[in-house]
Amino acid sequence: MGNNRPSHAIARVFVALALTIPVTAVAQTPAARQTGTVKSIDGTTITVLTTAGAAMPVAVAPDALIEQLAPGVTDLKTAVPVKLSDIAVGDRVVTGKAGDTDTASRVIVIKSGDIKAKQDAEKADWQKRGTGGIIKAVDGPVLTVTAGTRTVKVNTSSTTVFRRYAPDSVNFQDAKAGTLADIHPGDQLSVRGDKSADGLTVTAEEVVSGSFANLSGLLTAVDPAAGTVSFKDLTTKKSVTVKLTGNSDVRTLPPTMAAMFAAPKTPAGGGTPPAPAAGGPGGAAAGGGRARGGADLSRMLPRLPTATIAQLKPKDAVMIVASPGADGDTFTAVTLLSGVEVLLTAPAGQQPVTLSPWNMGAPGEP
Predict the structure, then answer these.
(1) Which end of the chain is more exposed for a tag (fewer CB within 10 A), N or C?
(2) Structure confidence by residue, pLDDT tens digits, 278-318
(3) Highest-confidence range of 47-61, 128-142, 339-353, by mean pLDDT?
(4) What are the contacts of 343-346 at 24+ separation with CB within 8 A?
(5) Would the pTM count as exceeding 0.85?
(6) Which domains does the chain have, with CATH numbers?
(7) pLDDT averaged over every residue in the chain
């Protein structure tokens, strides 16, 4: 019984569950199918930790079929038989039962080391072939994206993978499967794919998008207890309140780096100044290539110093990417960047510095 392979339909369900992000339990009893991360192993019982925080014990039958699958692979024919002793804490598993038995007759495992290696490779590819910005127009399968001073054409197709970020998070594990129809002008977008020689056209393999508001202004109030900041948005001239949560990424821009971003400089021979490369103080952006007005700060965000709401104070200048609430005046911060006074007071006519909610490597991160 334990060595009989399920039908192809059931096999696809197993694989889909194993690769779904975030992982969720599909039932709440030990005998039911469970999907998650191995928290502990006690004899023949595996405790699976779901993203909801529930620890679900799963008893594995003595004759259970246990197979190891590579991350991202959906064909169970490539699975390799392993032993229960090969499963370790931190591995991803999907378990299933046969009929009404109380024990799992099948376990599919994806090793944590393999998952990390795949994530590292994806992160490197996003850094190499990723770009992002704000959707300006949607014309059938072609997306027009503005990134700093550049306008990029993104060509999508039937093979393009679309994902949609959760309203209050740009963590890739929180993104849901999406479609081209989900994308609208004003959305934030990150795309991975082959670029043309001039970098102005991208053939999209994967698109991650979200609906967020870009806000900026001088703080008028900071309430650490409530987790909120208030200010008048420079664009809409409306007073807004922004709530910071555990998912909010709060950073501060050092004065020397802010000055580099605010200093306009045209490259030799004219043309559009390039966006800064990833890096922090003393890194690529602070070294050979100076950051300039019209640049996108998103590549630098991961290396900027982190901050807390307790460090903010009235009159601080901030740039925020946030998810709007139902009332239109209350927002949840995804990214908050302080120390941007010189960026908000750039000379008239100078291209603005833009802030996207994620850096180019984010979709590849765990």
Answers:
(1) N
(2) 222 222 222 222 334 445 566 677 788 999 999 999 999 99
(3) 128-142
(4) 343/253, 343/258, 343/261, 343/262, 343/317, 343/319, 344/216, 344/217, 344/234, 344/317, 344/319, 346/262, 346/293
(5) no
(6) 8-110 (no CATH), 117-210 (2.40.50.140), 213-359 (no CATH)
(7) 76
